[in-house]
Amino acid sequence: MTGTQDSPTRPRDLPRDLPRVLIARRVPAAVAERAVREFDAILAEHDLDADEALRRVAETGAVAMVTGPRVRLTAAHAAALPPTLRVVANTSVGYDHMDVAATKAAGVIVTNAPDVLTDCTADLAFMLILNACRRATEYAAVMREGWRKGYGMPDLLGLQVSGRTLGIVGMGRIGRAVARRARGFGMKVLYQNRNRLPAGLEEGAEYVPTLEALLPRSQVLSLHLPGGAAGTLMTRETFALLPPGAVFVNTARGSLVDEEALIEALQSGRLFAAGLDVFRKEPDFDTRLAALPNAFLTPHVASATVETRNAMGFRALDNVAAVLAGGAPIDPV
Q1: Which of 85, 132, 269, 313 could, after both became Cys, cross-link 275 (CB 3.0–4.6 A)?
Q2: Between 29-38 and 306-324, two packed helices, what is the crossing angle to 10 degrees?
Q3: In what residue span(s) does the D-isomer specific 2-hydroxyacid dehydrogenase catalytic domain sit (predicted)?
């Protein structure tokens, strides 16, 4: 489907010499309508991979490409980019799915969408904290199975979130937004970051200089740092540093976690529970996690609200428009 042919959202008298842009992933209707209105847009009917996307760019002469995580541009792809391509606009904050340095070295601008996912992701991270601590997987199973057995005072006891100590690894925009939500629950907030934040950004959170020092103090641990260079952060050794009965939450990257070690910690009771939105392999995640009653899982949907998904697409289009107008990108990577 292309915007130049039969889209009902483009006025019939609109000039046909608009820049051609490939939207290489499925996007919400509002984003598709804007793309068709402002560009000669080619709308993919499914999320393209890198080979498909670059083939479509070459065939159509597109000058820009709006992408998602399936467009994994490698150095080999970057060495053979179609000559018309000027900008690759990611709809997400993360860009570790592509070789940015090689792409930029080939003369193509790369952008991301760093601000628009913050609150939505922080909301879901705190949802995971609450649901992991309060045994939501088990409670939901009881109700779906018909709840015909009474429960007494010692049964199905969760952990009170209010007043617990939250350790945050990665105190960027999302980490700080989670910290603000935690303060509303009276939680003590510790954080470990590459560098200490200015006091104004800490907002009362306590800086801990090393992960090894943070973990033993974290009754709840939440990851908010990019994957890639960080490698596997949570291993048998690092899980063992958490206090017994800790809760682990990850809305960052599945690559940060040794899932064998995580499963062992959950099965043994070393961890009370985990709340996970990301996995090492997606969507074909390790289903042993789904079988654990103390794991609360969501399918990588931290940004999945109407408002945020529209904002992600609009921000990518803003970056495309800025570059194609001859200006600087809004969010250069």
Answers
A1: 132
A2: 20
A3: 37-333
Say whether 253 is catalytic.
yes
Burial of 158 (0-12, 13-18, 19+ CB in 10 A): middle
> What are 207's two structure tokens?
């800086």
State percent of the chain over pLDDT 90.
91
* CB-based contact 59:20 (threshold 8 Å): no
- Residue 1 scores a pLDDT above 90: no
DSSP string, 174-196: HHHHHHHHHHHTT-EEEEE-SSP
Catalytic residue chosen out of the listed positions 224, 253, 309, 315: 253
Using alpha carbons only, what angle is made at residue 57 by residues 51 and 61, rounded to the nearest 5 degrees?
155
Spell out the domains of the chain, with CATH numbers in brackets: 20-116+306-324 (3.40.50.720), 118-297 (3.40.50.720)
Beta-bridged to residue 257, according to DSSP, are: 234
Q: What is the pLDDT of residues 67-80, one digit of tens each?
A: 999 999 999 999 99
315 as an active site residue: the answer is no
The answer to whether residue 288 is catalytic is no
Distance CA 214, CA 312 (A): 33
User: The tokens 């609150």 sit on which residue?
Assistant: 119
